[in-house]
Amino acid sequence: MVKVALAKGRLAEKAMAILEKAGVDCSCVDQSSRKLVFTSDDGKWQFILVKPTDVPTYVYHGITDIGVVGKDTLLEENLPMYEMADLGFGKCRLCIAGKVEDMGKPVRVVATKYPNIAKRFYYSRGENVEIVKLSGSVELGPLVGLSDVILDIVESGGTLRANGMDVFEEVCQVSARLVVNQVSLKTKSDEIKTLVNNVQSVLKEGNPK
Fold first, then answer.
1. Do residues 112 and 151 touch, judged by C-beta distance below 8 A?
2. Coil, strand or helix: which one is 124?
3. What angle, rounded to 10 degrees, do the helices at 189-206 and 10-21 form?
4. What pLDDT is stored for residue 157 in this prediction?
5. How does DSSP classify residue 81?
6. CA-wise closest residue to 203 among 69, 89, 81
7. Closest CA to 113 of 155, 164, 76, 70
8. Bridging pattern class, strands 66-70 and 176-180
9. What was the pLDDT predicted at 208?
10. Fewest 10 Å CB contacts: which of 133, 147, 171, 186?
11. In a 3-state reduction of DSSP, which class is residue 139?
12. What is the Cα–Cα distance from 64 to 2, expressed in whole angstroms?
């Protein structure tokens, strides 16, 4: 049996659409139910539904063999596992942003949901900044004087513009990734490598050059 960690909601739906095309029977998964663990009728696949930020934890500890998770979460958790495919959905950017009038000013305090990413980003440039972790609306940081800038996910940028803010610089591109536990790739090599090859074929068919 191959065990799969999926982030609840739209990410799981999009992931399962790709997995189904790759030959994985996901019909047992019912996100409308209260169940969190589902097993396919043939017993070959088991799916667990978890919070997006928990996917790397389940994969790293070998509770599941594979998982689908955003690149932002992978970078923040920074746990050793194999990143096997860029699934191409959930696209957005991790950016530094702040009030328009503050662009170009020195940064002393950064508010973010991604403290580890922020620390590595600024420290790699030799900049010593204070990092404040927030769980809610990070945009409030500069607006109320808690921080000079934010490091956060940006999709359309509409929320930033509505609050008189803009992107100062891009940290990295983000999308959903297929990840594999390092031990599982050895112990379940045939099943997982077949799945990865099938997923890559599906992705190529969906993005013809």
1. yes
2. coil
3. 100
4. 87
5. -
6. 89
7. 76
8. antiparallel
9. 43
10. 186
11. coil
12. 8
